[in-house]
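RECORD TYPE: inverse folding
INPUT: structure tokens
STRUCTURE:
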């Protein structure tokens, strides 16, 4: 019984020239982001709060925690983002229900108080004692790291006055 082995195809020089280009394209495509934007619900603050949020928007940094600014959709002066939804800020959000809980956790970053809500997808922080509430959600990679709040504290302090 004779066995037939699969024949080996010989690659032409022209085919070999395309292989590096295809490999490079596959590598670039695999390593780049999908281009899809994060989404965030745009809050509906009062007119006075919206003015504070617009002022905050102008002062927000281009990078937070070494992540570049990448605002979520739909675009709004009430929302901002960094990285691929790693950090999302919403200004003028309603007062969180959990803020009424005397046992809720809080942190302070550079003179700004933030209430902490632990979530599976990552922590959420909301400013306390400010004329409008600013909410920052962080991806789970920041579960034990509130460092991004330090990058946001200065613009919050500058544009959203204390309510005390």
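DESIGNED SEQUENCE:
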């Amino acid at each position: 019984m004779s066995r037939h082995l699969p024949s080996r195809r010989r690659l032409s020089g022209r085919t070999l020239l395309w292989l590096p280009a295809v490999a490079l394209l596959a590598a670039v495509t695999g390593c780049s982001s999908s281009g899809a934007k994060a989404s965030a619900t745009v809050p509906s603050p009062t007119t006075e709060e919206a003015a504070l949020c617009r002022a905050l928007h102008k002062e927000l940094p281009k990078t937070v925690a070494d992540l570049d600014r990448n605002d979520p959709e739909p675009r709004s002066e009430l929302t901002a983002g960094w990285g691929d939804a790693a950090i999302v800020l919403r200004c003028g959000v309603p007062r969180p229900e959990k803020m009424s809980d005397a046992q809720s956790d809080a942190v302070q970053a550079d003179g700004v108080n933030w209430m902490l809500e632990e979530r599976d997808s990552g922590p959420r922080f909301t400013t306390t004692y400010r004329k409008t509430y600013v909410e920052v959600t962080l991806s789970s990679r920041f579960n034990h790291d509130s460092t991004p709040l330090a990058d946001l504290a200065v613009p919050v302090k500058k544009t959203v006055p204390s309510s005390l």
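NOTES: Confidence is low (pLDDT under 50) at residues 1-34.
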